[in-house]
Design a protein that fits this description.
Length: 278
C-alpha cells in the first residue's frame, strides 16, 4: 500500500495558552492511514486555568483548519482524592479550573470521545533547578556565533539526586520563543547536585533593551524524551524527515477499537527569572 503523508498541526506546548500562551503552529508529518486523535495539554503549579485540546489529524493539502473533537468527556484526578470534569470552553478545548500541580502527586486524565477511550498518567516531578539569575554575554559574529549580540546564561542550584529533567523556555519582550533552536532540554546526569551556570541555545541573538524571561519547567523522563524526539524530527531535514509516530506519547488507548492517539498530556512545576539587557 502506498503511503501518503498527512499533515498535523502540533502546537508547540507553549506556556501561555495551553501551557499558558499563544498558539504557535509547527507542521509535523504523519503516515497515512487511519486518522488519529491528537491530545495537547499541560498542567502546572501556577494559579491559573490550564487547557487540554483534542482534534483529529488532517490530510496534507486539505484545509488548515483541523477538526476539533467536541462533546468529549474529560476527567482529571489525582491521588489525593481530587477529581474534576473538564468544561468545553470552545470547540475541542477543555478547561482545567480547579486542580493544580503539586510535587509528587500522580495525575490521571481520562478521555471519552466518539473516537474511543484514552488515559494519561503522570507523577509530578520535582523542580530540580530553581533559577536564581540570568546573565548575558555579548559575542561578535564568528564561526561559532552566526549573529553578533547577547547570548543568555541561566544560573541556579541543582538538587542532589539523579534522573531529574528540565526544560528552559525563553520569552523575549513577553513573546515566547518557539523555534526548534530555542528548545532547551536537559538531564541532570552530569551536573547532579552542582551549582549550574548554563548557556542556553537561541535561534536569534538578543539586543540591548530586550527583556528576557526564562522559565524552568520540571519534566518527567517520558516528557523529556517527547521533546527530544520532536526536536530531532524538526532538525532532521524538516517536517518530512520522519513520521510523527516516532514521537512518543503518554496517552494510551483503553479499548482495542479506539482510534489511534498521538500528542501529550504533561505536568510540570515552574520556576521563573527575568532580566533586562542593559
Amino acid at each position: 500500500m502506498i503511503m501518503k503523508i498527512l499533515k498535523l498541526i502540533l502546537i508547540l506546548l507553549a506556556p501561555v495558552l495551553l501551557f499558558s500562551a499563544c498558539e504557535d503552529p509547527i507542521d509535523i508529518d504523519v503516515k497515512e492511514g487511519k486518522p488519529a486523535l491528537v491530545v495537547e495539554g499541560w498542567l502546572t503549579d501556577r494559579p491559573e486555568n490550564h487547557y487540554v485540546k483534542l482534534y483529529i489529524t488532517k490530510p496534507l493539502g486539505g484545509s488548515n483548519d483541523f477538526e476539533p473533537v467536541r462533546n468529549a468527556t474529560l476527567t482529571l484526578s489525582d491521588d489525593a482524592g481530587h477529581t474534576e470534569q473538564l468544561k468545553e470552553v470552545s470547540a475541542g478545548k477543555y478547561e482545567i479550573s480547579a486542580i493544580r500541580g503539586v510535587e509528587a502527586r500522580t495525575y490521571t486524565l481520562r478521555i471519552q470521545t466518539a473516537e474511543g477511550s484514552y488515559e494519561a498518567v503522570s507523577k509530578m516531578p520535582r523542580l530540580s533547578m530553581a533559577p536564581d539569575s540570568l546573565t548575558f554575554k555579548y559575542e561578535e559574529k564568528s564561526i561559532i556565533y552566526e549573529q553578533e549580540g547577547y547570548y543568555p546564561y541561566i544560573h541556579g542550584q541543582e538538587l542532589p539526586g539523579e534522573d531529574d529533567f528540565i526544560q528552559v523556555k525563553l520569552f523575549k519582550n513577553n513573546r515566547y520563543l518557539n523555534s526548534v533552536d530555542d528548545i532547551n532540554i536537559f538531564p541532570d546526569k552530569f551536573v547532579d547536585g552542582n551549582y549550574i551556570d548554563m548557556g542556553l541555545e537561541i535561534d536569534s541573538a538578543f539586543a540591548a533593551g530586550d527583556t528576557i524571561r526564562a522559565e524552568v519547567w520540571s519534566l518527567t523522563e517520558n516528557a523529556y524524551y517527547f521533546w527530544a524526539d520532536l526536536q530531532t524530527q524538526l532538525r532532521n531535514g524538516g517536517i518530512f524527515a520522519s513520521p510523527l509516530t516516532n514521537t512518543r506519547t503518554n496517552v494510551k488507548k483503553l479499548t482495542e477499537n479506539s482510534k489511534d492517539v498521538i500528542g501529550y498530556f504533561g505536568i510540570s512545576l515552574v520556576g521563573t527569572v527575568e532580566k533586562k539587557i542593559e
